[in-house]
C-alpha cells in the first residue's frame, strides 16, 4: 500500500493557502537567521556592477508574497496543488543547505539609502527576511516553477510575465547577485527532475486522484 500522495486540498478560502505554507516559512526564516557560519559577500561580476538599481521594481519584488498563493489557487486540481507543495518544499530543502552551510549576503544598504520609500522597504524586508540567504535565489526557483505550472492555462501570460518580472527584480532591486539567479534556475531544473524521478512514480503507485 503506497503512502497517499494527496496531503493538501484546494480550500474554499484563499487565505488557507498561506496556512499550508506556514512550516515552509518557519524553516525559511530559521535558516537565514540562525547561522552556523558568518555570511560572506561575493565579488561583483561585471554584470552585477553595471546593472542599475531600479527602485520602481521594488513593489514587483514584494508581490512575490501574493504571486505564490495565486499560483496555488490557479492549480487545476489537488494533484497539481500537491505537486507544487512538494516541489516548493524540495526547493526550500536544497536552498536551505546553502543558507545553513554557505550563507551569502548582499550589500543592500548601499542602494536603499537614497529615498524614504526605498529605506522603508529595506527596513521592512530586513525585518521579514534576514539578508543571509542570497545563494541560491529561492525567489527565482519558486517563480520559475510557477511559470512552468502556468503554461497552457487560461491566465498563462499574466503569470509568466509577472513571474519573469519578479525574477528580474531580484537583481535589479539589488537583492541578489547574478550567480544567485543562475543558481536558482538550477534549483528549479533539479526540482523538475525530482518530479519526474520521485513524484510521478509516487502518484502512479498511490493512484492519486484529483
TrEMBL record:
Keywords: Membrane, Transmembrane, Transmembrane helix. This is PAP2 superfamily protein. The chain crosses the membrane at residues 12-31, 51-72, 84-106, 156-172. GO terms for cellular component: membrane. The lineage of its organism: Bacteria, Pseudomonadati, Thermodesulfobacteriota, Desulfobacteria, Desulfobacterales. Residues 33-192 form the Inositolphosphotransferase Aur1/Ipt1 domain. It comes from the Bacteria. The keyword Secreted does not apply. It holds the Pfam family PAP2_3.
